[in-house]
Amino acid sequence: MNDQSWIAAVTLRQRLRLWRIRVRSLLQRLRRGLLYGLGRLSKEDAQLIFVDCQSLAGWHPLLILSDDDVLKEINEAFEDDPSLAALVSAACARVSHKWESAGDELYEARRWARNLVEDYARDNDIALLSRESNSGQDDDEQLA
């Protein structure tokens, strides 16, 4: 094989690889669009659609309040409870609709969401058990 035919073969191989990647990406976007239209979008697919649409929409968020981050903070502070995920989601949704910027936005947004989770848990008679040792509190006392 001479140098020119080898370069042409590599170029053709690269073009075919790029074409396969583009077609695969197109099919994945079509699949997500169909699932969105059917109302059956997974959390991961919704996040991918959001990321795909950011630059087209002209959005350039520097900070993102996510359920996962707030839930992680809640789980670090309190014992696990199956109902926490729904409370965290509701708290984050409220914070995102009411938020006004004033400095350390992401920390404050997560803190507000965490406080709302504690309020929602109290309103729903869910006892949040602190992971920290509470030296000044009775062992039976629960945080809500």
- Poorly predicted spans: 138-144
C-alpha-based Rg, rounded: 24 Å
Q: Give helix and strand order, one letter per element, not per position.
A: HHHHH
Beta-strand fraction estimate = under 5%
Task: Specify the structural class.
Answer: mainly alpha
How would you portray this structure in words?
The protein is mainly α and 144 residues long. The chain folds into two domains: 3-57, no CATH class; 62-144, no CATH class. The protein is 67% helix and 0% strand. The protein is built from five helices and no strands. It has helices at residues 3-38, 43-57, 67-77, 84-98, 105-123. Helix 3 packs across helix 4 and helix 4 (84-98) crosses helix 5 (105-123). The longest helix is centred in the first third of the chain and has 36 residues, at 3-38. The radius of gyration is 24 Å and the shape is elongated. The N and C termini lie far apart (75 Å). Mean pLDDT is 83; it is low at 138-144.
In short:
The protein is mainly α. 67% of the residues lie in helices and 0% in strands. It has helices spanning 3-38, 43-57, 67-77, 84-98, 105-123.
Q: Which characteristics define this entry?
A:
disordered C terminus, mainly alpha, 2 domains, 144 residues
List the helices and strands and how they pair.
Elements (H helix, E strand, L loop, with lengths): L2 H36 L4 H15 L9 H11 L6 H15 L6 H19 L21
